[in-house]
Amino acid sequence: YAGNAIISYDLGGRRAIRLPIPAYKCQGFGKVTIEVVVNPKGNVVSARIADAAASLSESCLPNSALESARNSRFVPNDKAPASQKGYIYYTFVAQ
Questions:
Q1: Residue 61 CB neighbours (<10 A)
Q2: Which of 86, 85, 95, 90 is nearest to 68 (CA)?
Q3: Cα(95)–Cα(85) distance, rounded to whole angstroms?
């Protein structure tokens, strides 16, 4: 399967170094919000599905977004808290 995914994020002013585009492993569309926790080195240390819109016809899209979020990386910041919480938003465009 192939399709476009639009990615945005909110992590308290930190910039992203890497935001992998999730793979379409099934048909479907909708929005997925992933809650991430990032350490001062910029690594995602935990991620969970915070919200998945009802328009998602397949459960594989939230799981694909979760996998991409876990592989994301942000700019290191020694002054950041040990665990900085933020969100990555994935919009899967209808195929």
A1: 27
A2: 90
A3: 32
Rounded distance between C-alpha atoms, residue 93 and residue 62, angstroms: 13
Q: Give phi and psi for 70, each to the nearest 5.
A: -65, -25
CATH class of 5-92: alpha beta
Q: Which amino acid is at 89?
A: Y
Contact between 50 and 34 (Cβ < 8 Å): yes
Where are the chain's structural domains?
A: 5-92
pLDDT digits (tens, 9 = 90+) for 26-69: 777 889 999 999 999 999 999 999 987 755 556 788 999 999 99
What's the pTM value of the predicted model, to 2 decimals?
Answer: 0.90
Could you tell me how many helices (H) and strands (E) the chain has, helices first? 1, 6
User: Are 90 and 32 within 8 A, CB to CB?
Assistant: yes
